[in-house]
Specification:
The protein is an alpha/beta fold and 440 residues long.
Length: 440
């Protein structure tokens, strides 16, 4: 599958040829990540950090021109981040801010003096990194020029053969990112033979970057067992994510097991499983175009968009493929009950969504935005809601027994949600902050 790349330099999204020459520049990172994340993971690279362009003075000391933009993007998708990550503290901070994985480049490799003595990796750093954030969160770059590992922003050859370095790096990482540097940004195709040798040399996940410029290459690498990280080909519209997504699915297996159809599981943004259906290429194409989940009806042999008659459509936020490339998980926002019986999901008989903090928040936000006569929620001004939170918090601490604690906690959560609505603070933001503290 494809991992879309957002390279940042001087606070802009850029694409460089061979890591040096500016080819294009744009300032729409927010819309890019929304589109890219619909189809899969996103790699964000701080090129200024990789090149050592660090701010040395003032309150922003130690950061780059991309730092604030980078932070704002980290929780807007399934993001992996790289560029100048040279110490464990920085890696841990990025994970706490929402990065799912960190990409380690030059810091993973031994110093020039140690390499002269036969050492390949900076094992002291990598041991500490694995201990701190875990091997599953680590990607090591095995960037190479003509089969030799390069470091320091691709400006220095390390004297380490690619395959030898990859076999050692695999011990410390869940993935290896191989960039064919001499092909990077050239749109002339990547080194398929080198990618094949790398795939055969290691067992971990391999992501190939540098020069991939056609859908055919993406599919060939997928069949080889490699994922692809794309930048220039996407920005210049030589390759399209919707086509890559569809063509990389395991249609051969689908033909054998499910009549040529791919199972699609619909899940709400809060994690509730809503329904399952089947899709062919035509159904996926319509889903991509409308952002409404579309299936192929096996009973009627027709294309159908969920909700086309009832209005209870499923708004698709992102699609994810499983490890075997034969099942899709669609994260959706349901607009009404999902099941034809009137139930909220096809897996229970409830006529409405389960109570969650998000659902309570949305209900209260609606009442505050469109108050009805006699609405207690709408009558709460800023001062009163804070007073009620103080009262209810005290009642929670004084509650005795399970039932009384439940009752008082419900009251407290109601008023807390009202305050959050008034301050435009979402539960996602609160949970993100708790996640950050947990990973700090």
């Amino acid at each position: 599958m494809v991992i879309s790349s957002i390279d940042l330099k001087n606070g802009k999204v850029v694409q460089l040829k061979n890591g040096k020459d500016l080819v294009l520049e744009r300032d729409d990172a927010e819309s890019l990540i929304e589109n890219f994340n619909f189809f899969g993971e996103v790699a964000i690279i701080d090129l200024d950090a990789a090149l050592g362009n660090i701010i040395q003075e003032g309150k922003h000391r130690g950061t780059t021109a991309n730092t604030e933009l980078l932070k704002s993007l980290l929780r807007k998708g399934n993001v992996r981040v790289g560029g100048g990550i040279k110490d464990v503290k920085k890696a841990k901070e990025l994970i706490s801010l929402g990065a799912e994985k960190v990409i380690i480049g030059s810091a993973a490799w031994a110093s020039a003096d140690d390499r002269a003595n036969g050492k390949i990796l900076n094992t002291e750093f990598l041991d500490e990194l694995v201990k701190t954030i875990g091997k599953q969160r680590i990607i090591i770059s095995v960037d190479a020029i003509h089969g030799d590992i390069v470091v320091k922003g691709w400006t220095e050859t390390a004297g380490i053969p690619l395959l030898e370095g990859a076999k050692e790096a695999e011990k410390y990482a869940s993935e290896l990112l191989f960039t064919c540097v001499e092909k990077e940004g050239c749109m002339s195709g990547t080194d398929m033979e080198q990618a094949k040798k790398l795939r055969e040399a290691v067992k971990c996940r391999i992501v190939v970057a540098g020069g991939v410029s056609t859908l055919e290459e993406v599919v060939a690498l997928e069949k080889m067992g490699c994922d692809v990280q794309l930048g220039m080909a996407l920005y210049t519209e030589k390759v399209f994510l919707d086509e890559c997504f569809t063509e990389c699915l395991n249609w051969e297996k689908a033909a054998e097991t499910s009549g040529g159809l791919i199972p699609v599981i619909a899940q709400s943004t809060s994690g509730e499983v809503l329904m399952m259906g089947y899709a062919n290429k035509e159904a996926f194409a319509k889903t991509f175009k409308t952002k409404k989940l579309t299936f192929w009806s096996r009973t009627r042999n027709v294309l159908w968009t969920k909700g086309e008659n009832s209005g209870n459509f499923l708004e698709v936020k992102k699609l994810r493929v499983d490890c075997d490339r034969d099942t899709i998980l669609a994260t959706v926002v349901p607009h009404g009950p999902v099941c034809h019986t009137g139930s909220w999901t096809c897996f229970n008989a409830e006529a409405d969504a389960s109570s969650t903090m998000e659902r309570l928040y949305e209900t209260l936000a609606g009442r505050l935005a469109n108050p009805t006569p006699g609405s207690y929620t709408a009558s709460l001004d800023d001062k009163r809601v804070r007073e009620k939170i103080e009262e209810e918090a005290e009642e929670v601490t004084e509650a005795e027994g399970k039932e009384e604690v439940i009752w008082e906690c419900a009251d407290l959560l109601y008023f807390l949600n009202v305050l959050m609505c008034k301050e435009n603070v979402t539960w996602k933001e609160v949970m993100d902050e708790l996640d950050r503290r947990h990973k700090k």
